[in-house]
Amino acid sequence: MQLKLLYESEAYRATRVWVPVANYVDSPDGPELFVFVEWVRSSAVEEISKLARSIGLEYTIEDSKITVYGYR
Predict the structure, then answer these.
(1) CA gap 48, 70 in Å, rounded
(2) Per the structure, how many domains does the chain have?
(3) pLDDT tens profile 15-27
């Protein structure tokens, strides 16, 4: 899975995205608030698309990967 933060120029590879602290995601520099997530990309298309649809997040599917957008 890849995760791109709004203020970073490059995405980073994440081994786990959601951390036990509500409203935060894992990042190389420690927990970041969800509001700073630009997008999340994964090869788990079916699972992630169902989740994104259920909570109303915009997404695209390309090259067998799903990208879910926090901001678009």
Answers:
(1) 14
(2) 1
(3) 766 555 778 877 7
